[in-house]
Design a protein that fits this description.
Its EC number is 2.7.1.134. This protein has ten helices and 14 strands. The chain has helices spanning 12-17, 20-28, 57-63, 67-82, 92-98, 101-114, 133-142, 227-230, 254-268, 303-318; strands at 4-9, 32-36, 51-54, 87-89, 120-121, 125-128, 149-153, 163-167, 180-184, 191-198, 201-208, 223-226, 272-279, 286-293. The two termini are 19 Å apart. The protein is globular, with a radius of gyration of 21 Å. It has 323 residues and is an alpha/beta fold. The strands form three sheets. It has a five-stranded mixed beta sheet. Helix content is 32%, strand content 23%. A hairpin with a 2-residue loop joins β10 (191-198) and β11. The chain folds into two domains: 4-89, Rossmann fold (3-Layer(aba) Sandwich), CATH 3.40.50.11370; 97-293, D-amino Acid Aminotransferase, Chain A, domain 1 (2-Layer Sandwich), CATH 3.30.470.20.
């Protein structure tokens, strides 16, 4: 049987974070060769590849204003289009849509309609493209968004994408930095559930999150925070400290999680992604607040075995004459 070759096109930081060398060792035991793709060299000289696993988000975002990154992306896309049998995990158009929060929130909203009758929702949100204060205020009222509002950048990748703010009143809307998304904040007992998807499987890890705030507009200065710092496993912030008397929020219902992941996989056409979900403390509704491209999978000890079994599944499918 010919050697099965899987190319990994990841940043140095990402390769280190997932410990690619250890994963390559595991693959070698199953007759799969892992190749670290160097985008600065021709891909033909490094191929052929049965599968390419990549996270090209940096390159895609940088290509908009940097000709060198655009060239690397063009080279990658040329290779992929001239090697149609090479499977991409995940397809570039699918990844591109998740780099834009406007696009990913539209997907989440559609999902809410598909899963009607199940206790899954996404909070009301608004796409802001203008600095006209009266237009923003009018749109917030029309969409019936409730304060506090959480404000997120439109670009959902890079260090700036973690910079968020909590806006407590109409006056605070001055602090929104368009283009951005405004979303009604949902009290969730300071617990965020990170759902890590690998093909057919998913794993849920609980993380710290923002504490509860009174609902409705009130006079308070906008709070600026970095979501990455607030929700790290070891985070300890005044923004996540809950009142001791607060009842515990129930863990998400597993059947609901399965239904959500299944629908998202179909809607996104992706196999490696993360979903941030919270449980509304009042209604216990499962609430989707973000989708992430190829996340870090921290806290998922089964990541290697799940990724390997998904790669083997894809290899088998691609070599099946019926496909």
């Amino acid at each position: 049987m010919a050697s099965r070759r899987v190319g990994f096109c990841l940043s140095v930081k990402k390769r280190r974070r997932i410990n690619l060398s250890a994963f390559a060792h595991l693959c070698a035991g199953r007759g799969i060769e892992v190749v670290e793709i160097d985008l600065s060299r021709t891909m033909d000289s490094q191929g052929p590849f049965d599968i390419i696993v990549h996270k090209l988000s940096d390159v895609i975002v940088e290509a908009e204003h940097d000709s060198q990154s655009q060239q690397l992306l063009d080279n990658f896309q040329t290779y992929v289009s001239t090697h149609p049998r090479t499977v991409l995990l995940d397809p570039l158009p699918a990844m591109r849509q998740l780099l834009d929060r406007f696009a990913s929130y539209r997907i989440i909203s559609k999902l809410q309609n598909t899963l009607q009758g199940k206790s899954i929702c996404c909070p009301p949100y608004l796409e802001i493209n203008t600095t006209d204060m009266s237009a923003i205020q009018e749109a917030v009222d029309r969409k019936q968004l409730t304060y506090p509002l959480i404000c997120k950048t439109r670009v959902a990748h890079g260090s700036r994408s973690h910079e968020m703010s909590l806006i407590f009143s109409r006056a605070g809307l001055r602090d929104a930095r368009p283009p951005c998304v405004l979303q009604s904040f949902v009290n969730h007992g300071a617990v965020l559930h990170k759902v890590f998807v690998v093909g057919e499987q998913h794993f849920t890890v609980a993380r710290p999150s923002l504490k509860n705030f009174p609902t409705g507009p009130y006079d308070r200065k906008t709070i600026f925070f970095n979501s990455h710092e607030v929700s790290k496993p070891e985070s300890c912030s005044h923004l996540t400290a809950l009142d001791e008397t607060m009842p515990r929020v129930p863990a998400p219902n597993e059947d609901l999680m399965v239904a959500m992941v299944k629908e998202l996989r179909a809607a996104l056409g992706m196999a490696l992604f993360g979903v941030d979900v919270i449980t509304n403390i009042d209604t216990h509704t499962l609430t989707i607040i973000d989708i992430n491209i190829f996340p870090g999978y921290e806290g998922v000890p089964q990541f290697f075995s799940s990724l390997l079994s998904h790669i083997e599944y894809v290899l088998d499918m691609s070599h099946d004459p019926k496909h």
